[in-house]
């Protein structure tokens, strides 16, 4: 064993040793790693010395040669981490005397001489070299230790970790190893683990993910050339929100709907900020990102991970673990812990302890939920809390998502829309949706794809000319398909014309070229794509290019069967068993992916296992349609009845069956398949498939027959979605007749006067949906004022932002279309259905859509729609179910009943309710609602009693108040307007309001207002209305005359059954007035209980008339006030005659200030009749009563009655508490 011993004296007098030598003993291989790293410390310093490591080091030996060489650096393949550094093993630093070193023989003698000279120079300067060496080493180590300390203190950790990763070299790794070794020797394991995780495990994971994710294979992985992601990546349009409910529509149909969405109404989310919560949101732990197949979910994941791995974004996250479901499917039957699962997917994290001190922020990306074959039994799976406890994969994932495992971990799940409901909504904190490319991003993609600006512009212009193609370009994969096809067409055309010396034609655009050669429909595009890919594979494998394709029919039949059978079951991912079921040998699967390069792909996951899929769902549907034609062509069988022995299936039979089958599907999963199937029946499209399909002799006849068959289907009651797809089918068949008819009507503006057939209605919907201009506003009056028009055009309505359906003669029948408009993906933010007879039944149908969580309606107008209390309750219930969107609700002109207004105003107290404007009233009434709370402190719509007494209202306020009173939303039943300076003219306004809505008011006080005869006459129009149910009317001090009383009594005679209290005090009653009033009191239907005639100057004669009336109908009156009228003793005696009547039930009699001097008759009446049984209050104050009052007092006291008796003299309180005399 040979050693080189270097002894350095540090500043603190401690020795530092660097050892190198020839190690021949067994078991010391790991220690050589330490020696190498220490030698590298010296090798990187600026000294004339070098350490050369010969190949023999691989045989557990290390030979070190010290020679004089300027600027040398030693490279080594020794691992960054040695086992000893992890285990804390101590290197064997020997102090034995060193043996002479032996130099390696050089190839020339000149080199030997130079080496000897360098050795001599080295020996001469040894002292100075090692002095400088000591200073350099100490300075470097102190600097590195200071960085490590800051990392452990979490001071600027991101910068130092990044510095370590970007400037990583052997010397820094050696310094880290030394630090970790001594920390463990000092029993500081936690500090050592933290430092190791920060600088090694995290860095290693980032390094591996960076290598994996930095390149992208457009269309298909592992075939063709890859591209750096940063060179072609185009930002995708991602929005916040979206429903947790299942969207069962065909994904291409969803894309067509999305294409008409208005971006301004959506909240855009940057992919890099998925987990950033707004100030209003709670902390976001779990994000669900939805998007149709091929829209860019996995590429978004790739970009997110790559930005993190490269240190650009989200550096607060310590570890990101992407776990694709398609790969985890292969472990569905295994039992393992979460840490074992992570280690299997990411071996470089072995030994990681994610739960240590909860210091790590970890993100799990579960990509492709739609590909998951696990049951994900959130309700039934057992709880798992320990990351080290073994469990099934299903249990691990459900507990991870629910937060039982690693509750601090972030979770990002991606899924196609139909599978999103597999995750319970309460496990999701944020839902986002990838919309794909918006129109600007589509162009950006093509400009990045083609460096030739003219070529890019030409392709963009061509795609824009076809609505169906441009819509499909929302999907990045379709952009790639289009770019591939159109680029190939351009190149072939230009190569051909240049070859034929037609230089001028070489610059013809796609539009100027032969139309048959340029795809304008989906079928044409995919047929070109298939043709091109087969050509490419032949060129690759056979080394030859020919315009005609040599088709492998058996292979395409097998591939087509796989596509069709799994399309029926909505499967996109296939495994070995799926291939075997379709007759594909799994050992030859690569043949198929090779033959159809970039159409069918084979993938191998991180863990062992192989998956297969088509590059996109639309490609699978195209291959399935091609299979249907091929099966018919070869076997004369229909794909819909493959087991049948019938071998006489015709093309038209196949096409008709496909139309029927597609229309039977509510979710439309065969929609695109049908488009391709019909498109492939055209001779123009079969031209590219010659050699594969037999050319039909009667294609035109088949086309005409299937076109007519499709048009007949419009007569059935098809959903708008199914109808629209049939028009896309007609488009694939190049039939535009119905569309052109409707376009003619639109250009003439004659639609409102034309009766359209069901087919024409569907054509109108299709034209509006595919127009170049996005419709911001839909106005039904421009088309037809009818329920049918709304129902037929509902698919159009939901693509607009504002729908004006008001004044269109709509009924509750049209409301049946509204749940689909509001409850599915839509743009609608404002809906106006005012002035239609919807009634409660229509509103209930509307509420079905409102309560749907997909409904994002912000403004709803339902004024004058015949809605009652029941409809209001339905609205309140719907808005409680989905309170977070509607900000304005207009219900003016409806009748809310007793509780309708309260049902909705209570909703405003809900903290989740976003409703800001709840409009029940006209503008004037709204103004009343603004000034009234300033007086009474409450919203008048919630009041039963409104007291504005002593407020000088004036004309403006009276107008506002009248507008409020005449609205059915106003439920005020008691109105006090005492001393409000109301004039005769203002009384006209008030009376008009009360007349228009007379059913609520029960008590009205207009006292101390000079309304005079005119005002009373106007008020009488209200009183005589049979709907008026007024119980109390106060008109004291209103300057009434005999004319007023005549009108008043006449009105009350016509509607006598409701009034119970009448106050006419402080108005002079003439003889005719008293006569009219008495006539009213005599009517048995008039059931007045309280009559106030205080200070009305009633004479003894008039009192005789009144008492006569009371005697004829004495059973109703309970209270009578004739105070300050000079009825004298005569009048009192007359009233005694009334009290003597056994039918009299009078309880209160007020006669103060009436000139009474003798009460003897009253005493006798009270003592000898049953009057005291009813009489509760008797007021005789301010009368000059003589000695007779004493007998009255004694008689009342002895009667054991409960009478409250008031008289001028102040008497001591009687012992009997039941009798109160004053």
Automatic annotation (TrEMBL):
GO terms for cellular component: cytoplasm. One of its GO terms (molecular function) is ATP binding. InterPro entries: Leu-rich_rpt, LRR_dom_sf, NACHT-assoc, NACHT_NTPase, NLR, NLRP_HD2, NOD1/2_WH, P-loop_NTPase. Coiled coil: none annotated. Residues 78-110 are annotated as: Disordered. Its main location: cytoplasm. Keywords: ATP-binding, Cytoplasm, Leucine-rich repeat, Nucleotide-binding, Repeat. Residues 91-110 have a biased composition (Polar residues). Pfam families: FISNA (PF14484), LRR_6 (PF13516), NACHT (PF05729), NLRC4_HD2 (PF17776), WHD_NOD2 (PF17779). It is found in: Cytoplasm. The keyword Nucleotide-binding applies. Residues 285-419 form the NACHT domain. The keyword Lipoprotein does not apply. This is NACHT, LRR and PYD domains-containing protein 12.
